[in-house]
Amino acid sequence: MFRTSLASYCRCTAIDVWAAGMILLFFLTGRFPLFQSNDDVEALMEIAAIIGRKQMEKTATLHSKSMIINLHLTLS
Fold this sequence. Notes:
Elements: H1 2-7, H2 13-29, H3 40-51, H4 53-62
């Protein structure tokens, strides 16, 4: 779902690289689907739980965006 919504804004090589990376990750982990989210917001929360809030905020800043999370993310 995450890739589909991004494609509506930008159909470019970066999206294809993301898709190829996800396919490779599926093969390496043996897990599909990798994320169990119902929408893009839940997918971003799952990604933030894996790589960390600070890294997500740093990445947003690199792209002149801001990210505000008011939830405490924990890994279970």
